[in-house]
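Re: the 420-residue chain
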Amino acid sequence: MKILQVTQGYFPAIGGTEWLVQRVSEELVAQFGDELTVFTTNCYNGEGFWNPRMPKMEVETTQINGVTVRRFPVLTRVSQALRPVQKLFFSFGLPYHDWMRTYFGGPITPGLRGAIARQPANLVSAASFPLLHMFEAVQGARLGKKPVVLNGCLHPQDIWGFQRENIYSAIRAADHYIALTGFEAQYLHQRGTPLEKMSVIGVGVDPDRFSRITQAEARARLGLSPTEPVVGFVGQIGQHKGIDTLVKAMPAVWKARPDVRLLIAGSRAMFAQVLDQIVSNWPPKYRDQTTLIFNFKEEDKPYLFNAVDIFAYPSGFESFGISYLEAWASRKPVIGTWSGAIPYVVDSGKDGLLVPFHNCKLLTEAIMVLLKSPRWAQAMGEAGYSKVLSTYTWPTIARKFRDAYQQTIDSFTRGTAARG
Protein backbone atom coordinates (compact mmCIF):
# COMPACT_ATOMS: atom_id res chain seq x y z
CA MET A 1 0.00 0.00 0.00
CA LYS A 2 1.25 3.49 -0.87
CA ILE A 3 0.18 5.98 1.81
CA LEU A 4 0.68 9.73 1.89
CA GLN A 5 0.48 11.14 5.41
CA VAL A 6 0.01 14.90 5.79
CA THR A 7 0.74 16.39 9.20
CA GLN A 8 1.84 19.62 10.85
CA GLY A 9 5.15 18.33 12.20
CA TYR A 10 7.37 15.29 12.16
CA PHE A 11 10.43 14.19 14.11
CA PRO A 12 12.37 15.98 15.52
CA ALA A 13 9.21 18.04 16.05
CA ILE A 14 7.58 16.94 19.32
CA GLY A 15 3.89 16.59 20.14
CA GLY A 16 1.11 14.06 20.53
CA THR A 17 0.02 14.14 16.89
CA GLU A 18 3.62 14.11 15.69
CA TRP A 19 4.37 11.00 17.75
CA LEU A 20 1.16 9.27 16.62
CA VAL A 21 1.91 9.85 12.95
CA GLN A 22 5.54 8.78 13.31
CA ARG A 23 4.84 5.55 15.18
CA VAL A 24 1.96 4.47 12.95
CA SER A 25 4.00 5.25 9.83
CA GLU A 26 7.03 3.32 11.04
CA GLU A 27 4.89 0.36 12.12
CA LEU A 28 3.20 0.16 8.72
CA VAL A 29 6.61 0.08 7.04
CA ALA A 30 7.94 -2.56 9.47
CA GLN A 31 4.86 -4.80 9.67
CA PHE A 32 3.50 -4.63 6.14
CA GLY A 33 6.24 -3.20 3.95
CA ASP A 34 3.98 -0.28 3.02
CA GLU A 35 5.43 2.72 1.21
CA LEU A 36 5.00 5.70 3.55
CA THR A 37 5.55 9.31 2.52
CA VAL A 38 5.00 12.17 4.96
CA PHE A 39 4.35 15.75 3.85
CA THR A 40 4.98 18.12 6.75
CA THR A 41 6.35 21.55 7.64
CA ASN A 42 9.81 22.77 8.58
CA CYS A 43 8.60 23.93 12.02
CA TYR A 44 9.35 22.42 15.41
CA ASN A 45 5.95 23.33 16.90
CA GLY A 46 2.72 25.17 16.20
CA GLU A 47 4.03 28.49 17.43
CA GLY A 48 6.42 28.42 14.48
CA PHE A 49 3.46 28.69 12.07
CA TRP A 50 2.81 32.31 13.07
CA ASN A 51 5.84 33.46 15.07
CA PRO A 52 8.69 34.41 12.71
CA ARG A 53 11.23 34.32 15.56
CA MET A 54 10.88 30.57 16.09
CA PRO A 55 13.67 28.35 14.69
CA LYS A 56 13.02 26.30 11.55
CA MET A 57 14.35 23.07 10.05
CA GLU A 58 15.81 22.63 6.59
CA VAL A 59 13.36 22.44 3.68
CA GLU A 60 14.31 18.99 2.43
CA THR A 61 13.28 15.41 1.66
CA THR A 62 14.86 12.78 3.88
CA GLN A 63 14.43 9.20 5.09
CA ILE A 64 13.67 8.43 8.76
CA ASN A 65 13.33 4.76 9.74
CA GLY A 66 12.04 3.78 6.31
CA VAL A 67 9.61 6.71 6.01
CA THR A 68 10.15 9.37 3.33
CA VAL A 69 9.71 12.81 4.90
CA ARG A 70 9.30 15.95 2.79
CA ARG A 71 9.33 19.27 4.67
CA PHE A 72 7.55 22.28 3.16
CA PRO A 73 8.37 25.91 4.05
CA VAL A 74 5.82 27.90 6.05
CA LEU A 75 4.84 31.52 5.32
CA THR A 76 4.97 32.60 8.94
CA ARG A 77 4.58 36.32 8.38
CA VAL A 78 1.27 35.89 6.56
CA SER A 79 -0.24 34.20 9.61
CA GLN A 80 1.34 36.80 11.89
CA ALA A 81 -0.35 39.59 9.93
CA LEU A 82 -3.73 37.93 10.48
CA ARG A 83 -3.35 37.76 14.27
CA PRO A 84 -5.29 40.94 15.14
CA VAL A 85 -7.76 40.38 12.30
CA GLN A 86 -8.80 36.89 13.43
CA LYS A 87 -9.28 38.17 17.00
CA LEU A 88 -11.70 40.78 15.71
CA PHE A 89 -13.63 38.31 13.55
CA PHE A 90 -13.81 35.76 16.40
CA SER A 91 -14.85 38.27 19.06
CA PHE A 92 -17.76 39.61 17.01
CA GLY A 93 -18.74 36.37 15.27
CA LEU A 94 -18.25 37.90 11.84
CA PRO A 95 -18.73 35.83 8.66
CA TYR A 96 -15.76 33.58 7.86
CA HIS A 97 -14.39 33.85 11.40
CA ASP A 98 -13.60 30.13 11.23
CA TRP A 99 -11.42 30.60 8.15
CA MET A 100 -9.71 33.66 9.65
CA ARG A 101 -8.66 31.58 12.67
CA THR A 102 -7.58 28.76 10.39
CA TYR A 103 -5.33 30.91 8.23
CA PHE A 104 -3.88 32.62 11.29
CA GLY A 105 -3.10 29.27 12.91
CA GLY A 106 -1.62 27.98 9.65
CA PRO A 107 0.53 26.36 8.53
CA ILE A 108 0.44 28.30 5.25
CA THR A 109 2.51 26.03 3.01
CA PRO A 110 2.74 27.07 -0.68
CA GLY A 111 2.60 24.15 -3.09
CA LEU A 112 1.30 21.60 -0.58
CA ARG A 113 -2.11 21.06 -2.20
CA GLY A 114 -0.64 20.48 -5.67
CA ALA A 115 2.02 18.16 -4.31
CA ILE A 116 -0.69 16.07 -2.58
CA ALA A 117 -2.62 15.84 -5.85
CA ARG A 118 0.48 14.70 -7.79
CA GLN A 119 1.84 12.24 -5.22
CA PRO A 120 1.40 8.60 -6.34
CA ALA A 121 -0.52 7.07 -3.44
CA ASN A 122 -3.43 4.73 -2.82
CA LEU A 123 -4.67 6.95 -0.02
CA VAL A 124 -4.10 10.31 1.68
CA SER A 125 -4.28 10.43 5.48
CA ALA A 126 -4.07 13.69 7.43
CA ALA A 127 -3.73 14.72 11.09
CA SER A 128 -4.72 16.97 12.86
CA PHE A 129 -7.26 19.79 13.22
CA PRO A 130 -7.73 22.74 13.58
CA LEU A 131 -4.76 23.38 11.27
CA LEU A 132 -4.84 24.48 7.64
CA HIS A 133 -3.04 21.47 6.15
CA MET A 134 -6.12 19.33 6.90
CA PHE A 135 -8.15 21.30 4.37
CA GLU A 136 -5.28 21.17 1.88
CA ALA A 137 -5.25 17.38 2.27
CA VAL A 138 -8.96 17.05 1.43
CA GLN A 139 -8.68 19.39 -1.56
CA GLY A 140 -5.43 17.87 -2.81
CA ALA A 141 -6.82 14.34 -2.56
CA ARG A 142 -9.88 15.36 -4.53
CA LEU A 143 -7.73 16.94 -7.25
CA GLY A 144 -5.63 13.78 -7.42
CA LYS A 145 -8.71 11.50 -7.34
CA LYS A 146 -7.52 9.68 -4.23
CA PRO A 147 -9.47 8.75 -1.08
CA VAL A 148 -8.73 10.78 2.03
CA VAL A 149 -8.88 9.77 5.70
CA LEU A 150 -8.84 12.42 8.41
CA ASN A 151 -7.59 11.91 11.95
CA GLY A 152 -8.70 15.12 13.64
CA CYS A 153 -7.57 14.63 17.26
CA LEU A 154 -10.42 16.91 18.36
CA HIS A 155 -10.85 18.43 21.80
CA PRO A 156 -14.04 20.49 21.49
CA GLN A 157 -13.63 22.14 24.91
CA ASP A 158 -11.14 24.42 23.14
CA ILE A 159 -13.71 26.92 21.84
CA TRP A 160 -11.26 29.04 19.83
CA GLY A 161 -9.67 26.01 18.21
CA PHE A 162 -12.60 23.75 17.46
CA GLN A 163 -15.82 25.73 17.28
CA ARG A 164 -15.39 26.15 13.51
CA GLU A 165 -17.92 24.96 10.99
CA ASN A 166 -15.24 24.53 8.32
CA ILE A 167 -13.72 21.66 10.35
CA TYR A 168 -16.96 19.68 10.38
CA SER A 169 -17.67 20.38 6.72
CA ALA A 170 -14.23 18.97 5.86
CA ILE A 171 -14.86 15.86 7.96
CA ARG A 172 -18.18 15.25 6.23
CA ALA A 173 -16.44 15.67 2.86
CA ALA A 174 -13.72 13.12 3.67
CA ASP A 175 -14.04 9.45 2.79
CA HIS A 176 -13.39 8.24 6.33
CA TYR A 177 -12.60 9.57 9.79
CA ILE A 178 -10.49 8.03 12.56
CA ALA A 179 -11.60 9.11 16.03
CA LEU A 180 -9.36 8.58 19.04
CA THR A 181 -12.21 7.90 21.48
CA GLY A 182 -15.92 7.20 21.54
CA PHE A 183 -16.41 10.72 22.85
CA GLU A 184 -14.99 12.15 19.62
CA ALA A 185 -17.07 9.83 17.43
CA GLN A 186 -20.30 10.69 19.26
CA TYR A 187 -19.53 14.40 19.07
CA LEU A 188 -19.01 14.20 15.31
CA HIS A 189 -22.13 12.07 14.83
CA GLN A 190 -24.15 14.82 16.53
CA ARG A 191 -22.68 17.23 13.96
CA GLY A 192 -23.71 15.17 10.95
CA THR A 193 -20.99 12.57 10.36
CA PRO A 194 -22.44 9.03 9.95
CA LEU A 195 -21.14 6.49 12.47
CA GLU A 196 -20.42 4.01 9.67
CA LYS A 197 -17.99 6.55 8.21
CA MET A 198 -15.85 6.50 11.37
CA SER A 199 -13.43 4.17 13.16
CA VAL A 200 -12.51 4.53 16.84
CA ILE A 201 -8.89 3.51 17.27
CA GLY A 202 -6.92 5.54 19.81
CA VAL A 203 -3.17 5.91 20.19
CA GLY A 204 -0.37 3.69 21.41
CA VAL A 205 2.75 3.38 23.51
CA ASP A 206 5.89 1.23 23.61
CA PRO A 207 5.51 -0.46 27.02
CA ASP A 208 8.99 -2.00 26.98
CA ARG A 209 10.58 1.47 26.95
CA PHE A 210 8.93 2.24 30.28
CA SER A 211 8.51 -1.06 32.11
CA ARG A 212 12.16 -2.11 32.11
CA ILE A 213 13.27 0.88 34.25
CA THR A 214 13.02 0.73 38.04
CA GLN A 215 12.06 3.69 40.16
CA ALA A 216 15.46 3.60 41.87
CA GLU A 217 17.23 3.80 38.50
CA ALA A 218 14.99 6.64 37.35
CA ARG A 219 15.51 8.72 40.46
CA ALA A 220 19.25 8.16 40.44
CA ARG A 221 19.43 9.38 36.83
CA LEU A 222 17.38 12.49 37.66
CA GLY A 223 19.13 13.25 40.94
CA LEU A 224 16.00 12.74 43.06
CA SER A 225 15.76 11.30 46.56
CA PRO A 226 15.10 7.53 46.62
CA THR A 227 12.59 7.90 49.47
CA GLU A 228 10.55 11.08 48.87
CA PRO A 229 7.04 10.60 47.44
CA VAL A 230 6.91 12.28 44.02
CA VAL A 231 3.87 13.83 42.33
CA GLY A 232 4.73 14.34 38.68
CA PHE A 233 3.52 16.06 35.52
CA VAL A 234 5.17 15.21 32.19
CA GLY A 235 3.79 16.89 29.09
CA GLN A 236 3.22 20.14 27.27
CA ILE A 237 3.75 23.19 29.49
CA GLY A 238 0.46 24.93 28.79
CA GLN A 239 -2.34 26.35 30.93
CA HIS A 240 -4.92 24.15 29.23
CA LYS A 241 -3.00 21.12 30.54
CA GLY A 242 -3.96 22.09 34.10
CA ILE A 243 -0.45 22.86 35.34
CA ASP A 244 -1.72 26.04 36.99
CA THR A 245 -4.26 23.95 38.93
CA LEU A 246 -1.58 21.48 39.98
CA VAL A 247 0.84 24.10 41.28
CA LYS A 248 -1.98 25.87 43.12
CA ALA A 249 -3.02 22.57 44.71
CA MET A 250 0.44 21.65 45.97
CA PRO A 251 0.71 24.06 48.96
CA ALA A 252 -2.27 22.29 50.54
CA VAL A 253 -0.57 18.94 49.89
CA TRP A 254 2.65 20.20 51.46
CA LYS A 255 0.85 21.36 54.61
CA ALA A 256 -0.09 17.74 55.25
CA ARG A 257 2.93 16.09 53.63
CA PRO A 258 5.96 18.40 53.51
CA ASP A 259 8.12 15.51 52.25
CA VAL A 260 6.34 15.30 48.87
CA ARG A 261 8.30 16.40 45.80
CA LEU A 262 6.64 18.05 42.79
CA LEU A 263 8.22 17.18 39.44
CA ILE A 264 7.16 19.06 36.30
CA ALA A 265 8.80 18.24 32.97
CA GLY A 266 8.05 19.38 29.43
CA SER A 267 9.02 21.57 26.51
CA ARG A 268 9.49 25.17 27.54
CA ALA A 269 6.60 27.10 25.95
CA MET A 270 5.11 30.50 26.67
CA PHE A 271 3.24 29.36 29.80
CA ALA A 272 6.56 28.34 31.38
CA GLN A 273 7.08 32.01 32.26
CA VAL A 274 3.86 31.98 34.27
CA LEU A 275 4.96 28.77 35.97
CA ASP A 276 8.34 30.31 36.83
CA GLN A 277 6.59 33.29 38.40
CA ILE A 278 4.29 31.13 40.55
CA VAL A 279 7.16 28.99 41.82
CA SER A 280 9.41 31.99 42.47
CA ASN A 281 6.73 33.45 44.77
CA TRP A 282 6.58 30.32 46.92
CA PRO A 283 8.42 30.22 50.25
CA PRO A 284 11.83 28.50 50.10
CA LYS A 285 10.52 25.28 51.69
CA TYR A 286 8.10 24.79 48.76
CA ARG A 287 10.63 25.78 46.11
CA ASP A 288 13.08 23.28 47.59
CA GLN A 289 10.51 20.52 47.07
CA THR A 290 9.96 21.41 43.40
CA THR A 291 11.92 20.13 40.39
CA LEU A 292 11.36 21.72 36.97
CA ILE A 293 12.88 20.02 33.92
CA PHE A 294 12.43 21.76 30.58
CA ASN A 295 13.23 20.49 27.07
CA PHE A 296 14.24 17.01 28.15
CA LYS A 297 15.49 14.47 25.64
CA GLU A 298 13.10 11.81 24.38
CA GLU A 299 15.26 9.06 25.88
CA ASP A 300 14.73 10.64 29.32
CA LYS A 301 10.93 10.34 29.17
CA PRO A 302 10.71 6.78 30.58
CA TYR A 303 12.89 7.85 33.52
CA LEU A 304 10.63 10.81 34.25
CA PHE A 305 7.52 8.67 34.38
CA ASN A 306 9.18 5.95 36.45
CA ALA A 307 10.48 8.49 38.96
CA VAL A 308 6.99 9.50 40.12
CA ASP A 309 4.59 7.81 42.50
CA ILE A 310 1.52 9.65 41.21
CA PHE A 311 1.06 11.06 37.71
CA ALA A 312 -1.08 14.19 37.93
CA TYR A 313 -2.24 15.40 34.51
CA PRO A 314 -5.36 17.51 35.20
CA SER A 315 -5.78 18.66 31.60
CA GLY A 316 -8.91 20.23 30.19
CA PHE A 317 -8.18 19.77 26.46
CA GLU A 318 -7.24 16.27 25.34
CA SER A 319 -8.20 14.40 22.20
CA PHE A 320 -6.92 11.28 23.99
CA GLY A 321 -4.04 11.88 26.40
CA ILE A 322 -1.09 9.70 25.44
CA SER A 323 0.64 10.71 28.68
CA TYR A 324 -1.82 8.54 30.61
CA LEU A 325 -0.65 5.54 28.60
CA GLU A 326 2.99 6.38 29.27
CA ALA A 327 2.28 6.59 32.99
CA TRP A 328 0.45 3.27 32.91
CA ALA A 329 3.29 1.69 30.95
CA SER A 330 5.40 2.68 33.99
CA ARG A 331 2.74 1.15 36.28
CA LYS A 332 1.73 4.49 37.80
CA PRO A 333 -1.73 5.63 38.94
CA VAL A 334 -2.99 8.72 37.13
CA ILE A 335 -5.14 11.72 37.98
CA GLY A 336 -7.10 13.24 35.12
CA THR A 337 -10.26 15.31 34.75
CA TRP A 338 -13.91 14.80 33.92
CA SER A 339 -13.33 16.66 30.68
CA GLY A 340 -13.99 15.69 27.06
CA ALA A 341 -12.32 12.46 26.00
CA ILE A 342 -10.42 11.81 29.24
CA PRO A 343 -13.19 9.77 30.97
CA TYR A 344 -13.19 7.53 27.88
CA VAL A 345 -9.52 6.75 28.55
CA VAL A 346 -9.21 6.76 32.34
CA ASP A 347 -11.50 4.41 34.26
CA SER A 348 -11.96 6.36 37.49
CA GLY A 349 -11.45 4.23 40.58
CA LYS A 350 -9.82 1.42 38.60
CA ASP A 351 -6.70 2.79 36.88
CA GLY A 352 -6.83 6.39 38.08
CA LEU A 353 -8.90 9.16 39.58
CA LEU A 354 -10.80 11.98 37.85
CA VAL A 355 -11.57 15.45 39.17
CA PRO A 356 -13.29 18.49 37.63
CA PHE A 357 -11.04 20.66 35.47
CA HIS A 358 -9.51 23.62 37.35
CA ASN A 359 -10.72 22.34 40.75
CA CYS A 360 -7.74 22.76 43.10
CA LYS A 361 -9.55 21.44 46.17
CA LEU A 362 -10.57 18.12 44.65
CA LEU A 363 -7.19 17.72 42.93
CA THR A 364 -5.53 18.13 46.34
CA GLU A 365 -7.89 15.52 47.79
CA ALA A 366 -7.15 13.08 44.96
CA ILE A 367 -3.40 13.43 45.47
CA MET A 368 -3.78 12.93 49.23
CA VAL A 369 -5.98 9.85 48.76
CA LEU A 370 -3.34 8.16 46.63
CA LEU A 371 -0.52 9.18 49.00
CA LYS A 372 -2.44 7.70 51.93
CA SER A 373 -3.40 4.51 50.03
CA PRO A 374 -0.19 3.22 48.39
CA ARG A 375 -1.58 -0.28 47.83
CA TRP A 376 -4.63 1.07 46.03
CA ALA A 377 -2.39 3.40 44.02
CA GLN A 378 -0.19 0.46 43.05
CA ALA A 379 -3.24 -1.58 42.02
CA MET A 380 -4.38 1.28 39.80
CA GLY A 381 -0.99 1.42 38.13
CA GLU A 382 -1.08 -2.33 37.47
CA ALA A 383 -4.61 -2.08 36.04
CA GLY A 384 -3.43 0.65 33.70
CA TYR A 385 -0.45 -1.45 32.65
CA SER A 386 -2.75 -4.36 31.77
CA LYS A 387 -4.94 -2.01 29.72
CA VAL A 388 -1.92 -0.81 27.76
CA LEU A 389 -0.77 -4.35 26.94
CA SER A 390 -4.21 -5.47 25.80
CA THR A 391 -5.28 -2.43 23.79
CA TYR A 392 -2.72 0.32 23.32
CA THR A 393 0.54 -1.01 21.92
CA TRP A 394 1.75 0.54 18.67
CA PRO A 395 1.64 -2.70 16.63
CA THR A 396 -2.03 -3.10 17.58
CA ILE A 397 -2.89 0.53 16.85
CA ALA A 398 -1.07 0.47 13.49
CA ARG A 399 -2.97 -2.65 12.37
CA LYS A 400 -6.25 -0.91 13.17
CA PHE A 401 -5.17 2.14 11.17
CA ARG A 402 -4.27 -0.06 8.22
CA ASP A 403 -7.60 -1.88 8.38
CA ALA A 404 -9.38 1.49 8.23
CA TYR A 405 -7.20 2.56 5.30
CA GLN A 406 -7.87 -0.66 3.37
CA GLN A 407 -11.62 -0.41 3.94
CA THR A 408 -11.55 3.20 2.72
CA ILE A 409 -9.61 2.28 -0.43
CA ASP A 410 -11.99 -0.61 -1.18
CA SER A 411 -15.06 1.58 -0.69
CA PHE A 412 -13.57 4.38 -2.83
CA THR A 413 -12.72 1.90 -5.60
CA ARG A 414 -16.23 0.47 -5.59
CA GLY A 415 -17.73 3.95 -5.69
CA THR A 416 -15.48 4.99 -8.57
CA ALA A 417 -16.40 1.85 -10.52
CA ALA A 418 -20.10 2.43 -9.92
CA ARG A 419 -19.85 5.97 -11.25
CA GLY A 420 -18.20 4.62 -14.39
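The mean pLDDT is 95.
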